[in-house]
Amino acid sequence: MEKVFIYNEILGLKGSPGILQSINAHGYYDTVIKIKEKRHRIFLPISQTVVIFSESIIEMDRTIDLE
């Protein structure tokens, strides 16, 4: 399970925080989002949804110290 920001025009989600539980074989993101203070499990079509992971990527220092 990953914390994500969800964009989906069908539901009017514009960067809504949620949890990505899985990606199923039928082409849907299995997510949990809050609507009116209650958590709901929602299947969102992959083709119409953007998911951005809330954790940023840690940049690795690629310099090599040669002695």
Largest sheet: 5 strands, antiparallel
Contiguous low-pLDDT stretches (5 residues minimum) are none
Range of strand content: over 45%
Q: What's the assembly state of these chains?
A: single chain
Q: What gyration radius follows from the Cα positions, in whole Å?
A: 16 Å
Overall morphology: elongated
Description:
This protein is an all-beta fold. The chain has one domain. 0% of the residues lie in helices and 58% in strands. It has strands at 2-8, 13-23, 28-35, 38-45, 49-53. A 5-stranded antiparallel β-sheet has the order 4-3-2-1-5, with no helix packed on it. The protein is elongated, with a radius of gyration of 16 Å.
In brief:
The protein has 67 residues and is mainly β.
Q: Helices, strands, pairings?
A:
Layout: E1 2-8, E2 13-23, E3 28-35, E4 38-45, E5 49-53
Antiparallel strand pairs: 1-2, 1-5, 2-3, 3-4
Features:
single chain, mainly beta, 67 residues
